[in-house]
Amino acid sequence: MVTIADVAQRAGVSKATTSRALSGQGYVAQATRTAVQRAAEELGYIASANASGLATGRSQSIAVLIPIINRWFFAEVLQSVESALLAASYDMTVYNVSHNSANRERVFDYFLLRRSFDAVLLVGVDTRRSELDAVRRLGVPLACIGAPLPGIDSYVLDDYRTARSATEHLVTLGHRRISFFGGPAGHTHDTDPESSLVHGERFAGYRDAMIAAGLDEVLSYVPAQLTIASGLAAGRRRLAHPEHPLTAVMAESDEVACGVLLAARELGLDVPRDVSVIGIDGHDHGEAFGLTTMQQNPQQLGAMAVRDVLARIAGEGQPLAPTPVSAEFVVRSSTAAPRREDSVPRQARLTDTGGATRR
Amino acid sequence: MVTIADVAQRAGVSKATTSRALSGQGYVAQATRTAVQRAAEELGYIASANASGLATGRSQSIAVLIPIINRWFFAEVLQSVESALLAASYDMTVYNVSHNSANRERVFDYFLLRRSFDAVLLVGVDTRRSELDAVRRLGVPLACIGAPLPGIDSYVLDDYRTARSATEHLVTLGHRRISFFGGPAGHTHDTDPESSLVHGERFAGYRDAMIAAGLDEVLSYVPAQLTIASGLAAGRRRLAHPEHPLTAVMAESDEVACGVLLAARELGLDVPRDVSVIGIDGHDHGEAFGLTTMQQNPQQLGAMAVRDVLARIAGEGQPLAPTPVSAEFVVRSSTAAPRREDSVPRQARLTDTGGATRR
DNA sequence: CCCCCCTCAGGAACCGGTTCCACAAACGCT
DNA sequence: AGCGTTTGTGGAACCGGTTCCTGAGGGGGG
Q1: Which of A56, A128, A184, B294 has the fewest other C-beta atoms within 10 Å?
Q2: Class of the A61-157+299-313 domain?
Q3: A114 vs B227: CB contact, 8 Å cut-off?
Q4: Residues B345-351: contacts with CB within 8 Å, 24+ apart?
């Protein structure tokens, strides 16, 4: 391995000058600098990150904490973060801190400490108070992606508005019996008040849109994990129910929505004539399924978060609180107006009092 | 930050002894060792990876090269690799070396060199000769996952056998007009003879099974990228073709297979009565789609590869060449015997000569 | 009883960079 | 010409560990 001493010798200068010449810090005569650079080039010199990190305290690498890798949103974020970091000559070290991962604890009290990361990115975190404190104590720039955390720059979709818009789309088409398929069952840390709010926000958006449309009587919620399989299972159960038919499904994620679409086809229901389905995310599969959705851009979130922490590492104070980004409405073939007879409100059937009373 | 000198002082011994006591190397009296450990514990001491790496040359971190993150197989591998590494106190640094990534070149001639990785994992590589040489020159243990590379321990599915078995399943059910949906179009490095062979292997397995069954006359190949969207598009084109109907599709991947299933439903074809579909992979979505498939286990591959390189880092010479693992046959509802009239060989219709001549 | 070997511990060198500080030369100004 | 400032360079300390080497003490064997 060629060291800085080799370069120094070849260029006929000292280690100190060599270091300055290559890093661009301090006074170095132009001629000397060129000579050093040429020597380094010829020897194929590459500064050891270990040595340089030890001396400066900056490691040129950042840690990414992520609860799961094999899921659309997270993989997209990871991809864009990696790309943005490499472009700035930073390494990306990934820690999977899933809810039940065996190594989770050690990430916070060992791995993050032994290597001095220049920043930490929290992707879709589901962090306990103590863990969050441990990360804060590192004293390096932090940013989170996908789920907001108090006091930390958060790059997130505006889940509430997005879910509300999606629901309003269905309402506008004339739907009344719209059900929400999704979390939060089993998705949050029971013990942690600060855990991810995504599920709650999306449901809240749905709920408020329904209430605003005077449909609070028909608010309904079908539990589903955020996977196709779970969406399918939920769809089978709910769509087959002859007593309380739905005309539309507001799915918490595109994966759930795709599952519901599969269930509908299985049951011989025509989409969108018998049932409309809208999702949230902009998952790759959406197009193949003809799914109408609110499309977010995880890659953009990742890139923005990286830009943020990099700027703060460089010392450019950036106190601005990032604002939630909004999703893009993508209309495909899974939503349409309900069949004629279904667009008439059916509260009479569903309640004893009759009429559209608001509570 | 608390250093080893702090611990030494508190325990009343020298840095040297402290280091030995904590690392377990060399002679240390039991009493001293306990005292040092207690001091370290009380101070919350964690050795700096930078300093330790600089001194020993071992960095306790390994690099993972992967062409894409957001795809089932790769994400699964990444997840298992991360988990196995953390269990052994190694960090995982991820480099995305996709075909057209802007940073690809710098990964091989800069990033891999500046940090001294203890091993490199190549996942589904698509490596040029020069790049491979660069990796080899690192002089650290290597392993590849998902696609074999000459002279490197490879943890891969036996693609040929798997595809052949899948095809044989269809043949056994009585299918004759079976088409292969998949690569390699646009998937290999045109300039590189050593690039990934996955696509070719799977096609070869299909081809040989067909030939062995005397069906070489009806060999056919429908190009598709390995995505649902591409499988859907290919399915639409091919399944709608009234002149040359298929009774079965052998898809190169589950994602393609799922796309084909969507196409079939769109076209009003009954699966499996009108057309059977089999995939390869064991993708999460397979279950929701009722897809019959050859299920491989990427997590297992990742774990095995990590065990391999870790053992070699530890100096346990392990010259054994890993053997390709085989997939598990999972029967679901997308395959069945063809309709009666279709199970009769139709070579007469497809060739001028009539009869089942073998070329 | 003497000698050798094994155990234990510390000083110091070392890993490969960065940076502080001292010093010299060149430059600009009055 | 004299002096302060800017520019350029090198020696040496330092970052925080690990390891070599030396030496002291203790135990066992001849």
Answers
A1: A56
A2: alpha beta
A3: no
A4: B345/B176, B346/B176, B346/B177, B346/B218, B347/B217, B347/B218, B350/B217, B350/B218, B350/B244, B351/B217
